[in-house]
Write a structure and sequence with these properties.
single chain, Rossmann fold, 45% helix, 8 helices, elongated, alpha/beta, 2 domains, two-stranded antiparallel ribbon, 215 residues, five-stranded parallel sheet
Length: 215
């Protein structure tokens, strides 16, 4: 499987299943999408503000739900394999992305596996095991959280510096060299973490030392 990032802003995600798994999926996608969760009952859990619809769909009802909601992604998270299968089939017939939570390992072409993620916007790091071991994905995610802390601020800072260098007419190779020097500088990371020194000033000093360019 090839990992991709998908922007769900302004789109809908339809989740079948109101248990703990369905709640977790709803929270994940509610960061961007309008999420509708369909289930006869709902766990005492955070659904991330998703719209919850109390209903007990049969397999033959699934196509109608997809037609009404018009989702960009469908999540099959019920405890009924036959219903999950019907959800998957209906989604495929419509060319809609589908994530089936009761399958592990090999997947049908076009399937979506939702990875464990570490986020420090705009930086997102995803970890997946192809559905083989969600527990390992979570463990690796937790081990990466400390490493990624502060990366969002550094991404914003280097974006500004790249733009400044481009406006000054600095050649692409020199710009890449400058940004590499900044992201690999322990002094810049420390400045971002402590707040004792202005990170941009530290980054500019690093660039000037590495390339001789004035920012």
């Amino acid at each position: 499987m090839i990992p991709l990032l998908h922007d769900f802003t302004g789109q809908r995600v339809l989740v079948f299943g109101g248990g703990a798994v369905g709640a977790r999926k709803a929270r994940r996608f509610a960061r961007e999408a309008e999420v509708v969760v369909v289930s006869p009952a709902f766990a005492d859990a955070d659904f991330g503000g998703a719209q919850r619809v109390r209903a007990r769909p049969d397999p033959e009802d699934v196509p109608g739900w997809l037609d009404r909601v018009g989702p960009a992604l469908v999540v099959a998270a019920t405890d009924d394999p036959s219903l999950n299968g019907a959800i998957e089939r209906a989604a495929r017939e419509r060319g809609t992305l589908v994530n089936r939570t009761d399958e592990h390992g090999g997947r049908e072409p076009g399937s979506v596996v939702v990875p464990a993620t570490v986020r420090d916007d705009p930086v997102v790091v995803a970890v997946a095991t192809g559905g083989e071991s969600p527990a390992l994905s979570r463990y690796l995610r937790e081990s990466l959280e400390e490493e990624v802390a502060g990366a969002g601020d550094l991404a914003a800072l280097t974006g500004e510096l790249r733009e400044d260098l481009q406006k000054r007419g600095v050649p692409p190779e020199e710009r890449r060299k400058a940004v590499r020097a900044v992201v690999r500088s322990s002094d810049v990371w420390k400045a971002l973490d402590s707040g004792a020194r202005k990170p941009r000033r530290v980054a500019v000093d690093v660039i000037e030392e590495a390339t001789g360019e004035t920012v």
